[in-house]
């Protein structure tokens, strides 16, 4: 399967339905295969003890308040799902509670993501295997034993992808962990890829070269936007560059038959081929005695280099000009 690129919106829509639709449209226009949102429900996932990963908001005094302010109603989620369908882009939801997952299922969502913080969520590990969904899990904070536990729990789902991730925002390039992505594929024989929290395209490109099935990147309209994920995001212009590189990479990797290409280039081969000639103008009566008198000039169409032995010791019967090929008529009596 070709590498699929997921545009991660997260909560960068700030609770605006219009802005969320703009993210969907821009993701499609940039060539992403899927757009992903986070479905938070504070009542079922948060408590008074939950602290901000980064205290970025003067408006929100708790994580619960942030989830509530930026959440959509079920009807609004339905509108977003319908809009994504109309744009012909896959709609993925990151869920953080079974309640959120159940709401998304009612909306017809079939593609889900679990963040690395929920990789060892016992409720998910128990309930999700009972469902028929396509699941992507992230491993940003996980130990190998936790990844193995999740793979065993979810391996019978219709589709399972396990993404390498490093939960640092932004992720330093020397901690992206392409080797871990390759090890995930080797150990578990699952779809894999990179949930890329670096602020550049380089790590995603290297992941593609290493056979990533999925690349997930946070996206923003510009780097002056508000939100906790801006430092680990790329712009839609960069996303378009990434999808273009993905498409080029697929073309570059297509198998090519060398002889078939050579056959197609026959006219070019003639143009760059060579024909036998003499290095200097020679008058009639000149005897050709040395190999050093010969040269090859473009294009192909005259005698080959191997024909030079036919002329050694021969006397020119007509003048030879360097602008022409050497032919047997130059040494034959008329």
CATH architecture verdict of the largest domain: Alpha-Beta Barrel
| Number of helices in the DSSP assignment | 12
Going across the biggest sheet, name each strand in turn.
1-2-3-4-5-6-7-8
Q: And the CATH topology of the largest domain?
A: TIM Barrel
Outline the low-pLDDT stretches: none
Query: What is the H/E string?
Result: EHEHHHEHEHEHEHEHEEHHHEE
CATH superfamily of the largest domain: Aldolase class I
User: How many extended strands?
Assistant: 11
- Tell me about the largest β-sheet: 8 strands, parallel, barrel
Rg measurement, Å: 33 Å
Estimated share of beta-strand residues: 15-25%
Cα end-to-end separation:
69 Å
**Chain-averaged pLDDT:** 92
> How does the helix and strand content classify structurally?
alpha/beta
Based on Cα principal axes, name the global outline: elongated
Number of domains: 2
Q: How do the helices and strands line up, and which of them pair or pack?
A:
Layout: E1 4-10, H1 17-29, E2 34-39, H2 42-45, H3 63-70, H4 74-86, E3 90-95, H5 98-106, E4 111-114, H6 122-127, E5 134-138, H7 144-154, E6 159-165, H8 178-188, E7 191-196, H9 202-209, E8 214-220, E9 233-235, H10 236-252, H11 258-264, H12 266-272, E10 275-278, E11 294-297
Parallel strand pairs: 1-2, 1-8, 2-3, 3-4, 4-5, 5-6, 6-7, 7-8, 8-9
Antiparallel strand pairs: 10-11
Helix pairs in contact: 1-4, 9-10
């Amino acid at each position: 399967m070709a590498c699929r690129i997921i545009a991660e919106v997260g909560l960068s829509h700030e609770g605006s339905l219009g802005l969320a639709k703009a993210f969907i449209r821009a993701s499609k226009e940039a060539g992403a295969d899927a757009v992903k949102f986070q479905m938070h429900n504070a009542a079922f996932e948060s408590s008074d003890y939950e602290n901000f990963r980064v205290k970025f908001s003067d408006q929100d005094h708790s994580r619960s308040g942030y989830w509530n302010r930026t959440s959509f109603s079920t009807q609004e989620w339905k509108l977003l799902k319908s809009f994504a369908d109309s744009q012909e882009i896959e709609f993925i939801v990151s869920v953080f509670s079974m309640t959120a997952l159940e709401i998304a299922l009612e909306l017809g969502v079939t593609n889900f993501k679990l963040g690395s913080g929920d990789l060892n969520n016992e409720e998910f590990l128990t309930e999700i295997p009972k469902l028929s969904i396509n699941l992507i899990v992230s491993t940003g904070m996980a130990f190998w034993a936790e990844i193995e536990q999740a793979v065993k729990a979810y391996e019978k789902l219709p589709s399972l992808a396990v993404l390498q991730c490093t939960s640092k925002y932004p992720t330093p390039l020397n901690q992206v962990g392409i080797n871990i992505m390759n090890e995930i594929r080797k150990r578990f024989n699952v779809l894999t890829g990179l949930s890329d929290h670096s602020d550049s395209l380089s790590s995603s490109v290297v992941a593609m070269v290493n056979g990533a099935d999925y690349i997930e990147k946070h996206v923003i309209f510009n780097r002056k936007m508000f939100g906790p994920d801006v430092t680990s995001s790329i712009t839609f212009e960069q996303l378009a560059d990434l999808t273009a590189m993905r498409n080029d990479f697929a073309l570059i990797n297509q198998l090519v038959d060398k002889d078939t290409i050579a056959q197609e280039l026959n006219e070019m081969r003639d143009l760059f081929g060579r024909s036998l000639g003499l290095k200097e103008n020679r008058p009639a009566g000149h005897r050709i005695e040395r190999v050093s008198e010969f040269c090859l000039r473009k294009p192909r169409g005259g005698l080959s280099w191997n024909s030079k032995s036919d002329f050694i010791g021969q006397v020119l019967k007509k003048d030879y000009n360097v602008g022409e090929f050497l032919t047997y008529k130059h040494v034959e009596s008329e």
